């Protein structure tokens, strides 16, 4: 099976994450970070700075005066919003492409990723985790492995779908059987190569299988629940559909009920619409799994 | 022309040239109703069964929930000239995760709520494709009543 070897080579040659994103993630995972630390992580990246200012001044926020600097943006909108915005800008480039193997048209994986990011930060709040920004980023990157595997699933796709359809296999199990790796595992390899914080690597690695991680991590559980809600609601899903295993023990260990999922689902759909309009993106809703 | 019905959205139209389409139904349900005499069509893509979990969201957007969206869909097609006795009703969606324990069963509850509402209001379903673990895109051609489901690259007509 050459696919596994190809995949490892592909991970080896993936472009590095921009410095700004890395710096930001380190700032975000340090609870002692101050406003200045965040500004200095972004300000040398002209493209991102101008994009942040453009988005801040968009009709979406309806601010009464013009935002002219990063400091201004952070004060007006709060650090959380700006951090989320910067991460979304960075990942847009990687995730917005068509993922043909997964049956995802351009923009759809990004839409799914943003929805999971929004839901992740909601679940992080619900589980009273300290860092909702970290959850947002982990949610945004959870499916990054699909970007690499996509190049390999085109041919093997038929067999993956057969296993999923005929043998009731979960999509990640079928990926592993046919390609040697699941998109969770490939995503974690990419995240390690990018030297992302360990909690983010764990979220990517276990977002379909949170109970396999030892010791258990509430952050991983939050990302699992967020992804589950988005799959159920069909937000940005492709040929893998809903072929992910339900893990009710996640609900049990946090004392959650299904109605908690529903309430967060409703909020996510409303927020997602706002984010899409902020990025001027309405097309992404128009071209899903066919 | 394609008229897109978003998630938590409904559209009605009296235009034989129009096709109503909703993308990527997971556990959500797409309800398509069509009056072949008056050439009126309507489509709803609702997310959840009961509006009681968030009455204020239901007020702002009745199409989110079965119990508020379905009555609104029917009322809206009547307003533009459809007759209840003519209506052809087709539904799709209500998928679920791979799940032996029946948790995360939004799809099933979405379906049960719809059946109860239809039963109470004496609405018959002409065709349906619900359940499974696939994502579905559905289209209703308002001119011909053709109702198709796309999933994993295949099209089926109901």
What attributes characterize this protein structure?
heterodimer, A: 290 residues, mainly alpha, Hypothetical protein af1432, globular, B: 158 residues, alpha+beta, 60s Ribosomal Protein L30, Chain: A, five-stranded mixed β-sheet, 3 helices
Task: Describe the structure in your own words.
The complex is a heterodimer of chains A (290) and B (158). With 290 residues, chain A is mainly alpha-helical. Chain A has a single domain, classed as Orthogonal Bundle (Hypothetical protein af1432), CATH 1.10.3210.10. Chain A has 15 helices and no strands. Chain A is globular, with a radius of gyration of 19 Å. The model of chain A is unreliable at 282-290 (pLDDT under 50). With 158 residues, chain B is α+β, with helices and mostly antiparallel strands. Chain B contains three helices and ten strands; from the N terminus they run βββββααβαββββ. Chain B has a single domain, classed as 60s Ribosomal Protein L30, Chain: A, CATH 3.30.1330. Chain B has a five-stranded mixed β-sheet with strand order 1-3-8-9-10, with no helix packed on it. Chain B has a five-stranded mixed β-sheet with strand order 2-5-4-6-7. The mean pLDDT of chain B is 96. Chain B is 22% helix and 34% strand. In chain B, a hairpin with a 2-residue loop joins β9 (147-151) and β10. The radius of gyration of chain B is 15 Å and the shape is globular. The chains are: A mainly alpha (290), B alpha+beta (158). Chains A and B meet through α13 and α15 of A and β3 of B.
